[in-house]
Design a protein that fits this description.
The structure is a homodimer. The first copy, chain A, is an alpha+beta fold. Chain A folds into two domains: 145 residues, Nucleoside Triphosphate Pyrophosphohydrolase; 62 residues, Orthogonal Bundle (Arc Repressor Mutant, subunit A), CATH 1.10.10.10. In chain A, 24% of the residues lie in helices and 31% in strands. In chain A, strands 1, 2, 3, 4, 5, 6 and 7 form a seven-stranded mixed beta sheet that branches. Chains A and B meet through strand 5 and strand 6 of A and strand 5 and strand 6 of B. Chain A binds a DNA duplex through helix 5.
Chain lengths: 227, 227
DNA sequence: CCAAAAGTGTTTTTCCTACACCCATGT
DNA sequence: ACATGGGTGTAGGAAAAACACTTTTGG
C-alpha cells in the first residue's frame, strides 16, 4: 500500500494502556518508570509506545503491554477507551494516542508478572502519583469507565479469577465501586442475573466454613440490568 | 515543535462525523456523496477529512462538519465515539480515523443547512444505504451509542430544540428508542428526574389545546437513573 | 470450644406498569 | 359543534432495601 504525501503525516500514533487488577481486595494499575528530562524527569506513566505500520491500535496495545509492561497479553482483556490528540500532549513532537482499558485477574499472573521490576510496577490506584504526559487524565478516564461499565455488564468477569466464591466476587464489586454491599441482596441479585454457574467444588483450606465455587457461565461481557 | 522521524509517521489522521438530527419525528444522519473510483464509485459516506497539524481531532471534526457537511458547528454537540485503525480501512493509504458522534436540533438549522446539496444531504437512518470505507460500521456504532446513552443521561437535550412540549420530548425519545412510551408514565418520570424547567409560555397556533413549554434546566449532559 | 466466614427469608418501601377521561383551543 | 392533542391519578405487581441468626470448618 502507498503512503500518503509526507506533509500530511505530521503525527506519530501511540497506544497507551491502563491495565487494572485486583490484589488483596484493592484495585491496582500497571505503571512504568519514566525518566525523560527535561519535561518528565523521575516520574511514572502508563505503559505506552508507538503503533507500527502493520498493526492496528489494538494490536499495538497488546504488544506494548507485553514488551514494556512485561505482562503476557493473552491473559488480558482489552477494549478501546478514547483517543487523546491534544497538540502539545507530548512536548517533543506531535503524538496522538489511542488509549485502552485493560483488565487481568491477579491470580493468572506469573510471579514475575506480579512482582515489580526496574521498569514496570503495580500501583494502588487510590495512591497513584502524578503521571507524565496526560496519563493522569487517561487513568481517571479509564477508572471512571471501569466503575461505570461494571454496573450494567459482566465486565467484572475479566478481572476476577476463573473460579471464585460469592464473597470474593462481592469483594471485587466493592473494590471497584468503593462502597459496601449487602451480602443477602448481592446473592439474590446474582441469582436473578443468571450469569453464574455453581461448580461442584468448594474453597477449602481456610479456617472457616468452605464456600461453594462459581464461574461465569459465558466468557463474554454481557449487558445486564443494573446491578 | 519538532516532527518525529519520517519513517515513524506512516499514517494520516482523519476525523469522521456521524451527525444526527430529528425531523418530523424521524432520525436522520448527515451524509456526503462519495465518488472515488475504483474502490468507491457513486456511493455515500459520513462527512470526514484529514486532521491538520495545529488541530486536535475534535477541532478537525467540527471544522469538517462546517466545510464539507455545510453545517454551522457552533450549533452542534459533539463527542468522541471511537478510533478506527484497521490497516486496510482505506485502500489507498494508511488512514486512522477518529470518529465523532454529533447531534443538532433540526429547528436550529438554517434553511440552507436543512436542504440537500450536491455534496451533502440528510438521510433517514433506517433507510441508510451501504456506505464507503468502514462508515457502515461507524454509523451503526454511533447509532447504538446514541440509543444507549439516551437511556441514562440527558443527552437528548442536544437534539431537541431549546423549548419544547412534553409531547415533543416524548416523540424524540420514541424516535431514538424505536418504541412507544406511555404518556402518563413518561411525564411522571420526567417530573421525578427533575431536569426540566417549565416556562411561562405555551405552544400556540395549533388546532388543539395549547401545551406548556419546557426547557432543560442545565445545558450539560447529566447522568440520570435509567429512563 | 472458639474464631471465622458461609449461607439463608421475610418485611417494608419504592418504583414500574397498565389504563381512561375531561380540557382548552382552532376551524 | 367537533376535531385535535393536552393534561391528569390510581391500583396492583415487581423489584430493591433493610435486617440477624445458624452452620461448617480449621486451629
Amino acid at each position: 500500500m502507498q503512503r500518503a504525501p509526507e506533509h500530511l503525516r505530521f503525527a506519530v500514533l501511540a497506544a497507551d494502556v491502563a491495565l487494572f487488577t485486583i490484589r488483596d481486595k484493592k484495585l491496582y494499575v500497571r505503571l512504568m518508570r519514566v525518566n525523560r528530562p527535561p519535561h518528565f524527569p523521575d516520574t511514572s506513566g502508563l505503559p505506552g509506545g508507538l503503533i507500527r505500520e502493520d498493526e492496528t491500535a489494538e494490536m499495538a496495545a497488546t504488544r506494548i503491554l507485553a514488551e514494556r509492561g512485561h505482562i503476557d497479553a493473552s491473559k488480558v482483556y482489552i477494549e478501546q477507551l478514547a483517543t487523546f490528540s491534544e497538540v502539545t500532549r507530548d512536548p517533543r513532537s506531535r503524538v496522538v494516542a489511542v488509549a485502552y482499558l485493560a483488565l487481568v485477574p491477579w491470580e493468572t499472573l506469573s510471579s514475575i508478572e506480579q512482582s515489580d521490576s526496574d521498569e514496570a510496577f503495580w500501583q494502588l490506584v487510590e495512591r497513584a502519583p502524578k503521571l507524565a504526559y496526560d496519563h493522569d487524565h487517561v487513568l481517571r478516564n479509564a477508572h471512571e469507565r471501569l466503575r461505570s461499565r461494571i454496573s450494567y455488564s459482566t465486565l467484572i468477569c475479566k478481572i476476577v479469577p476463573k473460579e471464585f466464591t460469592l464473597s470474593e466476587l462481592q469483594a471485587a464489586y466493592e473494590s471497584l465501586r468503593g462502597e459496601f454491599l449487602d451480602k443477602r441482596n448481592f446473592r439474590k441479585k446474582m441469582d436473578m442475573l443468571d450469569v453464574l454457574t455453581p461448580l461442584k467444588k468448594k474453597r477449602t483450606g481456610v479456617r472457616a466454613r468452605p464456600a461453594l465455587l462459581y464461574r461465569f457461565t459465558s466468557p463474554k461481557v454481557l449487558i445486564t440490568p443494573q446491578l
